[in-house]
């Protein structure tokens, strides 16, 4: 029997910016559809009535993607989840997926990873918010400065600097 869960990654800060409201809306809708729980960050405000676990973080200091992935997989194991649905901004989804897949592989467990198709209904550029307090989530140019390096970096190095 499949037991799904959702991992929702914020894209910038605070929770009131459009990208995070969109992620929260998609995650809440998917959680209701799948009748499942959600693991996320403080900047993703999930609808009431849905079981949600928030990663520990300091205010105004979002955790790195890899740390979220590791805690999410740990959470999935604790709750006996067999399927994880990733909900992230389109520009962020490749890294969120890679980090969760790598964590599952490193732990030697089997969890099926899915990416929620609902993120595809929004153009990639629409995920960037000029009012984000996180500079890298304000524009494609700011995002790519950092992301290009992370894409080229071997994972064994990435996991040392990104955790």
Structural summary, described in words:
It is a single chain. By secondary structure, the chain is of the alpha/beta class. The protein has one domain (4-161): Rossmann fold (3-Layer(aba) Sandwich). It contains five helices and five strands, in the order βαββαβαβαα. It has a five-stranded parallel sheet, with helices on both faces. Helix 2 (65-78) crosses helix 3. The longest helix has 17 residues, at 18-34. It is globular, with a radius of gyration of 15 Å. The protein starts with a strand and ends with a helix.
Number of E strands: 5
When the domains are counted, the total is 1
How is the largest sheet built, in terms of strand order?
Answer: 3-2-1-4-5
Structural class by sheet pairing and helices: alpha/beta
The gross shape turns out to be: globular
| CATH architectural designation | 3-Layer(aba) Sandwich
Which CATH class?
Alpha Beta
Helix content: 40-55%
CATH level 3 topology: Rossmann fold
Ends distance:
33 Å
- Elements, N to C (H/E): EHEEHEHEHH
Mean pLDDT: 96
Nearest-angstrom radius of gyration? Answer: 15 Å
Number of helices: 5
Strand percentage = 5-15%
Low-confidence runs of at least 5 consecutive residues? none
Characterize the main sheet: 5 strands, parallel
In a few lines, what is going on in this structure?
This protein is α/β, with parallel strands linked by helices and 163 residues long. It has helices at 18-34, 65-78, 93-107, 140-152, 155-161; strands at residues 4-8, 37-40, 52-54, 83-87, 112-115. The chain has a single domain, classed as Rossmann fold.
């Amino acid at each position: 029997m499949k037991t799904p869960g959702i991992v929702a990654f914020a894209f910038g800060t605070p929770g009131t910016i459009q990208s995070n409201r969109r992620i929260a809306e998609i995650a809440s809708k998917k959680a209701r559809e799948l009748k499942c729980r959600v693991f996320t960050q403080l900047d993703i405000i999930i609808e009431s009535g849905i079981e949600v676990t928030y990663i520990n973080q300091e205010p105004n200091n979002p955790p790195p993607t890899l740390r979220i992935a590791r805690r999410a997989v740990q959470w999935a194991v604790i709750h006996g989840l067999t399927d994880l649905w990733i909900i992230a901004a389109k520009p962020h989804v490749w890294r969120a997926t890679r980090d969760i897949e790598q964590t599952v592989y490193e732990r030697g467990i089997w969890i099926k990873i899915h990416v929620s198709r609902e993120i595809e209904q929004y153009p990639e550029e629409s995920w960037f918010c000029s009012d984000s307090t996180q500079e890298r989530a304000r524009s494609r140019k700011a995002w790519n400065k950092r992301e290009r390096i992370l894409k080229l970096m071997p994972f064994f190095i990435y996991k040392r600097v990104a955790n």
